[in-house]
Amino acid sequence: MPQNLAIVLFFFILFTRCDFHSLEKPVELELYQKRVVQESLAKVHFQTQKETPNTLSSKEKEIFLYEDAQARQSLALFPETTFHKLEEIYASTIAHSHKVKMYEQFPLIQETSIEEAKAAFDPVIFLEGQYEHKDEPIGSTLKTGDMGRFEEDTGTWKIGVKNKAITGAQVSLSQELKLLDNNSQFTTPNPQNQVKLAFTVSQPLLRGGGLEYNRSVVKIALLDTQSSQQEALKNIEDHLMEVTKIYWSLYLTRVHLVQEQKMVSRLEKILLEMQNRSAMDVLPNQISRARADLLEIQSSIIRTKGNVRNLQLQLQSLVNSPDFKKPGKEIIPMENLTLDRPSVDLNQSLTIALKNRSEVKKSFLEIWAYAIRENMAKHEIMPVLNLIASVSIESLRENGNLRTFSEQFEAGKPSFSVGGTFEFPWGNRAARAKLKKAIQEKKRFMFQFQEVVDRILLEVMAAHEDVENNYLQIQTDIQAGNTVEEELAFLDKRSFITEQKFSIHNLESLGYFLEQLLNANNRLLQAQKKIAQSIVYYHISLAQLRRVTGTFLQYQKKW
């Protein structure tokens, strides 16, 4: 029967769903992305690759081993000690950091917009009811069959389901019950109840119609969610990079503390020797100078210990792990040092960065989303032209007769209607302005994409340069340290010879050599600090290179 066919059609439309999660990249945008990337890479590939610095010799690597081993032991700053590698620190940060958890909420919040957009296609159950009483004068006896006033009580109730289809059609299926009681002699039966089962479809033929247009809002929500995920990933990487810098800064400060404590014993030995020879060949100002240098180092040790505590507090705050927050624990960095020659290829790093960086992905997703908005705006330029069709079946009985509902399927034939609506704003200025805005927004994000690509390439080149320069700096600082060590060895030997040959007529005063020895030890401390600093900066630059190439979290096997 026609009415049964209408009901089947309604439920087919009602429960038919499309896969909103299938996002296929538009061909024109994919070609645009490749063109921008290729043009940007072509600008930097012409640059001449520098020679990779030579690797450190085993002897050069051993120079730093004493301070490294001491820095990885307790410095007696706290009652307890805990040993941590960077991988453990990263895992604790991702698990416990409030900042990371805050960043993780952004995609989850944005993800709700997907369900919100899809909810526009959810079925809606509705119920309507109305009671009306009339008491009207009459101008014809044909209305009531008698002179007097027309009185009527009407109750109307409607229940049904309506839904927006993926084609943009508005469909509804409703059951209506109408109760009527009046004083007209011509109403038969009286009182009476009337039921009506109606199926209505309003399908947009131009504006608002079509699968692509109606899927667009959900696609935009999906793209915005993916964009938010990339933004969260970038922020988490930045936070972990900050953790990395604090971690290595803590290690560097601990090494400086070991170096300063080691230097104190040397200066104390020189000062004691000067004091023992104060009556012979050491002047009072030389002793004062040695004492001042010793006090300065001791003062620096106090500051360095304070810096260790402050850096540890900063690391605890960034990681926010419950284990870190326990008072009285000394955090000892245990990450292995990498002193091998850097084996990184600039061109490969540039290509990897453009493939992996979250900023590139986010910027492209924004272009994609605004391309969809532009297509929607073009669609909305069209006028409204809707096809409206309805089919219904009705039945009427005396009031209280329940057979009215069953008879609507048995008696008579369905009623139907077909029509349409058309409207078009004069000048259509709002739709045209919206289209112009969408086009300009898309252009803005396309320029932003080009800027992001160029900036990322620049960051990779700078990070690559830092890695090589810091490794060269290690070699230079070690050579400078070796030179100071040679000077110290000469002065130690010369001081011993001078002491053995001392006489009142000897022009080579031991006090003079002790003062030179004091100066050389001060230079040695600065040289050792620079070596430690260069090694730490090298490790930070390696982490930064992974960060700018978009492999930071992949390297740490996270996410």
Description:
The protein has two domains: 349 residues, Outer membrane efflux proteins (OEP) (Up-down Bundle), CATH 1.20.1600.10; 121 residues, no CATH class. It is of the alpha+beta class. The chain has 16 helices and eight strands. The relative contact order is 0.14. About 2% of the residues have low confidence. Strand 3 and strand 4 form a beta hairpin. Helix content is 61%, strand content 16%. It has a six-stranded antiparallel β-sheet with strand order 2-3-4-5-7-8. A two-stranded parallel sheet has the order 1-6.
Short key terms for the protein model shown above:
single chain, 559 residues, alpha+beta, Outer membrane efflux proteins (OEP), 2 domains, 6-stranded antiparallel sheet, two-stranded parallel sheet, 16 helices, 8 strands, 61% helix, elongated
Topology, please?
Blueprint lengths: L1 H14 L11 H18 L13 H5 L2 H7 L8 E5 L1 H11 L1 H21 L5 E14 L3 H4 L4 E16 L5 E13 L9 E13 L6 H66 L7 H36 L2 H4 L3 E5 L12 H11 L1 H22 L4 E15 L4 H5 L7 E9 L5 H72 L9 H39 L3 H4 L4
Parallel strand pairs: 1-6
Antiparallel strand pairs: 2-3, 3-4, 4-5, 5-7, 7-8
